[in-house]
Write a structure and sequence with these properties.
28% strand; alpha+beta; 11 strands; globular
Amino acid sequence: MTTSHYQAARENLFGHVPFLQRRMPGMLIRDLGGALLVDSGLGSDTFNKVLWECGGDGRPCRVERGAEDGLLQASKDWFAGKRPRPGMALPPATERPFTVWASAEDEGALNRQRTAFGRNGYGIGELETGMALPLNRWTPEGRPPEGLRIVQVGTSAELSAYADVLAANWNPPDGDVKRLYKAAEQVLFQAVAPMRLFVGFAGEVPVVSGELFLSEKGNTVGLHMISTREAFRRRGFGGAMTAALLRAGQAAGASLAVLQASSEGEPVYRRQGFEPCGLFVEYVLSEEILF
């Protein structure tokens, strides 16, 4: 894979994360000058993010040397409900969880980045591999599992089913996930939108979800939010959703597919033809560090 594939994956992520929050009343986007703060106002770090080296227009940028500490402290202060630096609007008073998403082309860049985050009280919560697949190289494998029906979300009931699958990643299910997607219905049901949601049913039970996000004027399709309910895993449902999203990306005219894969998911995506193109890191505050 090439540097251009890494950049395409990065730009797609930066478009996907704040897409709904940019368009919904009461949700805030703040350009910190090297990082983009995305605040849903909800108590879920699924929707409260800081995008590292992302400009206000959603495109990649650079953090100036020596500016890292100020940006990371400003992010902590904002989500803690503290008064921000001059020139920024006041944050909501309540404290809310958040994470920081960053990217690195290789291990060397990751280590330099990790040093800056570490001295500010952040550690790695998730480390994922950026992966890319030119769609003209993709060949669908086999048939979808029997009894699985995947649809593009187009009704309130289907949107509720999609949110149910995602919310079930937490125990108990995360109510903020359901609240956000219910409030986002009008945004998501526009005739032509870069964010398109899909849900898979086994019989009448929603069991798997997936999101397609188009960037670079439709040339790149990002695969996000692929999730299978725990009781239905290891039946091929996640692979079938991945294939459905790739077919939808081809139909939309995209030439490149990108995603971020966990260590467990990477072998699955390699079998589909994806190849590594960089590293994507979710940083959390020290008390939540997993690695």
